Amino acid sequence: MKNRNMMFVVITAIVCAMVTCAISACSNGNKADGEHNDIDTINTIPVDTALRNRLECFAQKPRPQGNFAFHVFDITADKPVYGCNDTLALPSASCMKLLSGIAGLHLLGSNYEYHTEMLTSGKVTHDGTLTGNIAFKAGLDPQLMAADLNDFSKAVKDCGVKKVEGKIYVDLTITEPVKSERHWYPWDLTFSKYGLLYKGGDKVVKNLKASLRAHGVAVADSQVVVAHAPKGMKTVHTVKRPIDDVVKRMWKNSSNTQATAMLYTIGHRDNPEADPVASGVAYLRRFLHNDLGMTDRTLCIHDGCGLCIYNRLSPKALTTILRFGYKNKEIRASLERNLPVSGVDGTLAREMTGPKTRGKVSAKTGTLSHPYGISSLAGFCEASNGHLLAFAIMDSEMSVLDARVLQRKLCEELVK
Questions:
Q1: What is the pLDDT of residues 177-189, one digit of tens each?
Q2: CB atoms inside a 10 Å sphere around CB 290
Q3: Which residues does 331 contact at the CB level (< 8 Å), separation at least 6?
Q4: DSSP assigned state of 338
Q5: Which helix (H) or strand (E) holds 70?
Q6: d(Cα 169, Cα 233) in Å, to the nearest integer?
Q7: b/e per residue, 351-375, with b = 16+ CB within 10 A?
């Protein structure tokens, strides 16, 4: 009997070891897209089961016809809470700006600045003649307008310059004006609202000559050349624009011009010799695939602003984008500063103004009313148990008004 008992103990130990190995192997082989589970640092914080039950009920309630999908992820617990059609690729509208903004901050850094400079070389004689050259050296600042050239021209005037003996160099990062993406509707974007540096070299030259002349600096048309500034010139005026100014307008006000400029900036940084739009889109696709692990081929990117109706993201892709941004301390700070707040500011100033949701949701909106209703909302909120949630809800082929009701109801469930 004693030997039988000993044999039973040995067999039991072997079976337990085999089961443990099998469970370990299964857990390592079933990671969801964009989720990272370190076996040495398993997060044991539970998700709110009451919230999960509420979301399940919400998903099953009657709703207007159309495409409907959402995903909720508990950032505090580092676990998904609930999803309904969450991998379904749908038109993203302006929620695409979350991808381009976070990818841009990741590539360029949160301290990135756009620089625009006026430079001179040579000396100024007693009669105000500059014996050298002037150069206007511009990056891709999307908020520089024609009127801002007055500050550059004034700086030249303040140096005592009335006439230039040499050349006036206009050194531009891009010389062609912004063009509409082939799927954009003509009325979606007013190109006159773009900053000066996106209107093409001819416009920049025309405005720069007019500004210098208005400040008493004689300029002959033959002196102006669009070319790189010679080395060794002295800077007399600089305008620096932090990337956060661009991101704020992208997210808080959903500016399509600023998002397009971000795409140009990404593309130029990634490949200075290539077309910035094509290069920027290629980078966003690689970022989605390589950095976020979203390899679903139904996901599709055509621009950086979301105007193209053929852009496709899924709710799970959007929450993965948000989670990536949140894990980076500097990008997280930008998200906290610049996302619209429900009932308070930005594109959510007039949305979710009731006591249940006002001030409790920070999220990016996305809306296109053609060729059929497209509406999305993705961002963060704090649940009743104190956990931070990332969420995304996407609707299409549905009235935008109906979609916004669904968005409000989802947010009410999240903060309840």
A1: 999 888 888 777 7
A2: 10
A3: 102, 105, 106, 110, 324, 325
A4: H
A5: strand 67-74
A6: 11
A7: bbeeeebeebbbbbbbbbeeeebbb
Tell me how crowded residue 67 is: count the other CB atoms within 10 A of its CB: 17
The per-residue pLDDT for range 274-305, each reduced to its tens digit, is 999 999 999 999 999 999 999 999 999 999 99
Res 42: pLDDT: 55
Tokens, residue 196: 């000066």
Residue positions counted in the chain: 416
For residue 346, CA distances in Å to 302, 342, 402 come to: 25, 9, 21
Largest CA distance in the chain: 117
H/E run at residue 390: strand 388-396
Q: How far apart are CA 6 and CA 4, in angstroms?
A: 5
Do 324 and 291 meet the contact criterion of CB atoms below 8 Å apart?
yes
CA gap 247, 260 in Å, rounded: 11
Helix, strand, coil percentages, rounded to 5, for the chain: 45, 20, 35
Query: Pairing relation of β-strands 168-172 and 134-138?
Result: parallel
Q: Which residues contact 285 (CB under 8 A, 6 or more apart)?
A: 301
pLDDT range class, residue 348, cuts 50, 70, 90 = very high
CA dist 320 and 113 (Å) reads 27
Distance CA 51, CA 90 (A): 25
Q: Helix (H) and strand (E) counts for the chain?
A: 11, 12
What's the half-sphere exposure (Cβ side, CA atoms, 13 Å) at 130?
A: 26
* Residue spans of alpha helices (H) in 218-343: 243-252, 256-270, 276-286, 315-327, 329-338
Report d(CA 400, CA 103) in Å as an integer.
Answer: 28
Pairing outcome for strands 168-172 and 163-164: unpaired
End-to-end CA distance of the chain: 61
Q: Any residues with CB less than 8 A from the CB of 166 and at least 6 apart, and which? A: 121, 122, 130, 131, 132, 133, 134, 223
